[in-house]
Amino acid sequence: MITKIVLMVNKRKEMQEIFKHINNVFWKIEDVADENDRRAYKKILLRGRYTLHVWSALFVVWLCCICRTKSLPLKCYRPTWIPLYSIIALQDLTFILLSWTIIGIDGIITSFFLMTAIQLKMLNREIEAMFDTNDEDVIARKVITLIEHHDFMLRL
């Protein structure tokens, strides 16, 4: 949990460069010629996003329900002059803010994996459709493009 937060803060510049590179190199779903394939790719992406949203909302609700106890969620020193409920509220707020950070980072990672899966499906579809034409120059250009994209996906 803390490792994810530290990684995103310390490696912020590298992560931004990776995301910019991915944005430039990844094939766009809108560029897919076949309407059925385009809808299938969008459905995969939306299903992943909805799943992440549902699990995140359930986690935050569960966290709020757990934090409504009359005792401290974490064991800590409690001076007698500080009311118990103010410390409970502080710890609850801390847990909720930390969970939002974790959920955000998990959302980025999940989106990355979903986009990679869609890229591999698009690559597979292009390989299957490569020999639809008889023109050798077009096939040679497609092979070069597919090899470059496959090499990028392997390096990723």
TrEMBL record:
UniProt KW keywords: Membrane, Olfaction, Receptor, Sensory transduction, Transducer, Transmembrane, Transmembrane helix
Segments crossing the lipid bilayer: 52-73, 93-115
Topology within the bilayer: Multi-pass membrane protein
Record's subcellular location: Membrane
An MF annotation (GO) of this entry: olfactory receptor activity
InterPro entries: 7tm6_olfct_rcpt (IPR004117)
Any single biological process term in GO: signal transduction
One GO location term (cellular component): membrane
Keyword Membrane: yes
Predominant localisation class: membrane
The protein's name: Odorant receptor
Higher taxonomy: Eukaryota, Metazoa, Ecdysozoa, Arthropoda, Hexapoda
